[in-house]
From TrEMBL, chain A:
This is Nucleoside ABC transporter membrane protein. The chain crosses the membrane at residues 6-26, 70-100, 112-134, 179-196, 226-245, 277-295, 307-325. GO terms for molecular function: transmembrane transporter activity. It comes from Paracoccus tibetensis. InterPro entries: ABC_transp_permease (IPR001851). It comes from the Bacteria. Keywords: Cell membrane, Membrane, Transmembrane, Transmembrane helix.
TrEMBL record, chain B:
It holds the Pfam family BPD_transp_2. One of its GO terms (cellular component) is plasma membrane. It is found in: Cell membrane. The lineage of its organism: Bacteria, Pseudomonadati, Pseudomonadota, Alphaproteobacteria, Rhodobacterales. Coiled coil: none annotated. It comes from Paracoccus tibetensis. This is Nucleoside ABC transporter membrane protein.
Length: 342, 366
């Protein structure tokens, strides 16, 4: 990592440590809640990372997550099994991914417009089908018991509880989340490894920078891009399922509430790097947690309205995009359909 | 050689896309166990069956004309302005501030002032994404999305904490002075003795919207600036070679675009609500994308597409009222229209082109 990348991580860490020193109980609660709020952002951000690294812009992360949240909650309710719900969620997101792939890869359409369409398709279909199936105004019935992902206590969490530093970190913060939180955290090193240590990853990155070179090497651009779009569907699927069956207990109309766009912002903030994605989404989740904990945060004589905290991820991203604090340069072939030379 | 005649490109492809979108919507309605034909008849009856229905249809269409034109002007410069939602919201703030704090004794004076305020605020909200795109290459789609959210948060704060009258629980501004109320279309028609559309929100803004269509047409195809906008949209390198400054044209096109989106506020904020409420735009900014795509970025096409979406909107409301189909059906139709006319355009176009080529070959015998 470069210096400025370390800097972001250090700033985030410093914020947390200062908070812990100032108000231990509140800080632990806030950081814990940030860890619970982070997975949808992180998974969606990594989903966008695969897609955009392969040269397919995706502003439909929001819609895919929403669709997945709905299918996951519906199936989890009908079967009483959260894992079956997860599979259904991934399926729901995959279908929309396929539509995006068809539009942007096969038919070489405008990827941005396709993303917009997917967001609306999900927003409409989920309520339309939900109302028809459950007649609860677009909600699914509340999920209980095994239909939700339950908190897991990590091994030795009880034994290590009283050890200084490690105890609070491991037993209090890291332990006690649902399985998908750990899936999201594991997705970061896996993504790093896949992208930077495998042949597939090299090709994936190449296809986003210079598809013609990949094509010349005899590797199918279409297939690589479809794979990336499918991985994007898989990850947004997990994100949506977590939202409806882990974080909340059921689907509510428009429950993604802009998270897909915050993830998109985080992706730019992270400059399309997996570890940076972790830092960025944790920061944005922390902001969300603080906005929930303190609707009107008072720092000295100034009261910061929660609306400002909610807008902060977007404001930070615009500043990053403006290039005043290190420039964010997207993959070079992003957004352009590849036309094979004849 | 053109692969297919112009009329096919301009009329046939959007029509086929629309039919495809409608067909899939019909399948969706069938899938939830309702009758598509019955749904259509409820929509037609509710939106077009009476002057009351037409009043609402035209009211919605007026919103969509402004946001559709906004998307189209930017699109001609090959800029995808997805920020109509935020720009229209900011336009609403401009209208509210002008009407609440400026002494405007008559609507005839209030209308131009409010239009100016709406356009200024909308344009200002488009300015930062525009200048960032032009000067620093920040992708305008991403920045305008971010600005939609920032606008929503800002308006939330302004309405709850600043503009809300003392003692009111509603996150909304005070009512605008009565003398600034715009005359409704029904009042205008009643003054010449025609009974039409009573108690509907369609107002004089509709005529402003029609005028805006004509002005945008003149701007894009009959002025030097319009030529420069189209030249930049066609090819940036070509535009530079022709002595056109991409920075200047990008910013100007986005200012006009944002101004048009902002002008929507004279319809919904000034004409209908009479005060600024939370989330006043209600997605009209995004519908502008569908309208512009459907109307092929031509003001006349946008006018027709806006009428179509006005019909869908009003019809969808009636549908939710009389049947068990929620109004989100309209969101699905909107999504499918965007998908087919915008993203899957080639899916419709490629077979058509092949068809026309084959027809020409068999006719020419060559």
């Amino acid at each position: 990592m470069k210096l400025r990348e370390w800097l972001t991580a250090i700033i985030v860490l410093a914020i947390c440590l200062t908070w812990v020193a100032a108000d231990y109980a509140a800080a632990m609660q806030g950081i814990n809640s940030a860890l619970r709020l982070m997975p949808p952002l992180l998974l969606a951000c990594l989903a966008g990372l695969y897609s955009e690294r392969a040269g397919v812009f995706d502003i439909g992360l929001e819609g895919k997550m929403l669709m997945s949240a709905f299918t996951a909650a519906s199936v989890a309710f009908l079967t009483g099994n959260a894992w079956l719900g997860l599979i259904a969620g991934i399926g729901g997101a995959m279908v929309l991914s396929l539509v995006h792939g068809l539009a942007s890869i096969t038919f070489r359409g405008n990827q941005l417009i396709s993303g917009v369409a997917i967001n609306f398709l999900a927003a409409g279909l989920t309520v339309l089908i939900g109302q028809n199936a459950f007649a609860l105004g677009g909600r699914t019935p509340p999920l209980v018991g095994e239909a939700r992902f339950q908190a897991i206590t990590l091994p030795f969490a009880g034994a290590l509880r009283d050890v200084p530093v490690i105890g609070p970190l491991y037993s209090v913060l890291l332990s006690g989340h649902s399985a998908l939180v750990y899936v999201a955290l594991l997705a970061v090193p896996i993504t790093w490894w896949v992208l930077f240590r495998t042949r597939f990853g090299l090709r994936l990155r190449a296809v986003g920078e210079n598809p013609a070179s990949v094509d010349t090497a005899g590797v199918s651009v279409t297939r690589l891009r479809y794979t990336a779009v499918a991985i994007c569907g898989l990850l947004t699927g997990i994100a949506g399922a977590y939202l409806a069956t882990g974080l909340s207990a059921g689907f509510v109309k428009d429950m993604t509430a802009g998270r897909g766009f915050i993830a998109l912002a985080a992706l730019i903030f992270a400059r399309w790097q997996p570890w940076q994605a972790l830092v960025a989404t944790f920061l944005f989740a922390l902001l969300e947690a603080v906005a929930i904990l303190y609707p009107n945060l008072t720092v000295g004589a100034i009261t910061i309205p929660s609306a400002f905290m909610n807008a902060l991820p977007y404001i930070l991203t615009v500043i990053i995009l403006a290039g005043f604090v290190g420039r964010a340069i997207p993959p070079r072939a992003g957004g352009e359909p590849y036309v094979k030379e004849r | 050689m053109e692969k297919m005649p112009k009329w096919a490109d301009v009329i046939l492809t959007p029509l086929i896309s629309l039919v495809l979108a409608m067909a899939i919507s019909a399948l969706v309605i069938l899938a939830i166990g309702e009758s598509p034909l019955e749904a259509l008849s409820v929509m037609v009856e509710g939106a077009l069956g009476s002057s009351y229905g037409w009043g609402f249809t035209l009211y919605y269409a007026t919103n969509f004309i402004f946001t559709g034109l906004a998307v189209a002007v930017a699109y001609h410069a090959s800029l995808f302005n997805i920020g109509g939602e935020g720009q229209a919201a900011m336009g609403g703030l401009g209208v509210a501030l002008a009407l609440l704090y400026l002494p405007l004794p008559h609507w005839g004076l209030a209308l131009p002032v409010a239009m100016l305020a709406a356009a200024l605020f909308g344009a200002a909200w488009a300015f930062i994404p525009a200048i960032l795109q032009a000067k620093r290459g920040s992708h305008i789609v991403i920045t305008t999305i971010m600005f939609n959210f920032i606008a929503a948060a800002a308006l939330n704060y302004i309405l709850v904490s600043l503009l809300r009258p003392v003692g009111s629980m509603d996150p909304a501004s005070a009512r605008f002075p009565a003398e600034t109320n715009l005359p409704s279309l029904s009042e205008i028609l009643a003054s010449v003795g025609i009974l039409w559309g009573r108690n509907t929100p369609a107002n004089v803004t509709f005529l402003v919207a029609v005028l805006a269509c004509i002005l945008v047409w003149l701007l894009i195809w009959r002025t030097r600036l319009g030529f420069e906008i189209r030249a930049l949209g066609r090819s940036e390198r070509g535009a530079i070679y022709a002595g056109i400054s991409p920075v200047r044209i990008t910013v100007i096109a986005m200012l006009i675009s944002g101004g048009l989106a902002g002008m929507m506020a004279i319809n919904n904020v000034m004409g209908e609500a009479g005060r600024l409420v939370l989330n006043a735009v209600e997605g009209a900014g995004f519908i502008g994308i569908a309208v512009a795509l459907m109307g092929r970025n031509h003001p006349f096409g946008i006018f027709l597409a806006a009428l179509l979406f006005g019909f869908l909107y009003q019809g969808g409301g009636e549908l939710a009222l009389w049947t068990s189909i929620p109004r989100e059906l309209i969101v699905v139709i909107q999504a499918l229209v965007i998908l087919f006319t915008g993203a899957l355009d080639n899916m419709v176009r490629m077979p058509l082109e092949r068809l026309f080529l084959a027809a020409r070959r068999s006719r020419g015998g060559a």
